[in-house]
Amino acid sequence: MADSLYTIFNSINSAKIAIAMTDQTIHHEKWRAYIVSTPDVIGGKPRIVGTRIPVALILGYLAGGSSPDEIIHEYPDLKPEHITACLGYARDLAEYKVV
Predict the structure, then answer these.
(1) Cα dist. 90→40, 85 in Å?
(2) What percent of the chain has pLDDT over 90?
(3) Interval 3-42: pLDDT, tens
(4) Which of 88, 83, 93 is nearest to 31 (CA)?
(5) What own/partner pairs with CB < 8 Å and gap ≥ 24 does 6-12 have?
(6) Among 3.40.50.2300, 3.30.470.20, 3.90.1200.10, 1.10.10.10, what is the CATH number of 2-95?
(7) Is the pTM of this model over 0.90?
C-alpha cells in the first residue's frame, strides 16, 4: 500500500494538480462535500457524489500515471475538484493511525 500511495503522490507532484487543476483548493476534510459512501451504491465503496465512480478508480488512474485531464476526458461527469477531493481523501486515509 505504501508503494501505491508513493506512486499516487509522486503523480500528484508531477501534475501539480492542486495548482493547475482548480482555483478552488480543497482544504483538509473539504473532500467530504464531494465524496460519499452509502451501502446501497457500489457496495458502500467511497464514490464521487451523484455518480457511481469510485474514488479508488480515480486514484488508480493517477497511480498509473494518467493526468487529471485524461481522467476527466474518460469520465466527463468528473470535474477537477472531484479529482482534488479524491487526493484529499487519500491524504486523510494516509494520516489514519491504528492504536
Answers:
(1) 22, 9
(2) 64
(3) 665 565 555 555 544 444 444 445 556 899 999 999 999 9
(4) 88
(5) 7/63, 8/59, 8/62, 8/63, 8/87, 8/90, 11/62, 11/63, 11/65, 12/62, 12/87
(6) 1.10.10.10
(7) no
